[in-house]
């Protein structure tokens, strides 16, 4: 910015102080009303999963044999199942279980993808060829079928489900990160770090990965959506969470068989699932627009 432009901007009252990257992204994100709505909905769902059990005397394991398949009432706000379980308590527990699995899998897959993709791009040579070979091989493996078989073997243990979903969920992200990192490995700041004797691992973690941070954050939020849908699909088909534990997927599976006689068994978990996926998608779109200067929101900042 030339001195004449600065003087002109100062005379017109336009602030000339440059915003930091993080502050600029926050400012762009705050201007996106859809993203803010997504944040509010997602925060409400997280609070509901953490504190919702405080507002009921029932747990998701309790059976009320005097209220089998009862519609919503003052005693059971979301009704009961065929076994007398309180649907409200099950929705609270199922949402918490689905969120834990989704967040854990999204973080773990992102860490693995970032280290493998950026590491392969920077080191190059045989390491790069082997890493890409493994990634391409796993991409063509029928991962959903393997996920279903392994999940069925472990009888619905949610901790093993996290490991299985992570093991088959990092390849596509790693491939994209590798492509982005290849354009960074020859930059001046990387060469300067090498000249100063900085180690390979430190260059990857401190200099390459932070420069693709916007993509990683966007992928983290959208990864939560895809993980929730994957876990829900597995549980719906009977390969995910097993009774007596519940998730949104198991509740949808149970409710789908009685949609005409007891619609509340499907309506409440389905509504929560829709709110969860829509809110996280809105947040992800907002972060993407904030990080993209060519977007409508970015152009206004």
From TrEMBL:
InterPro entries: BP-dependent_transpt_permease, MetI-like, MetI-like_sf, OppC_N. This is Oligopeptide transport system permease protein OppC. Residues 95-284 form the ABC transmembrane type-1 domain. Keywords: Cell inner membrane, Cell membrane, Membrane, Peptide transport, Protein transport, Transmembrane, Transmembrane helix, Transport. PANTHER family: OLIGOPEPTIDE TRANSPORT SYSTEM PERMEASE PROTEIN APPC, OLIGOPEPTIDE TRANSPORT SYSTEM PERMEASE PROTEIN OPPC. Belongs to the binding-protein-dependent transport system permease family. OppBC subfamily. CDD domains: TM_PBP2 (cd06261). GO terms for cellular component: plasma membrane.
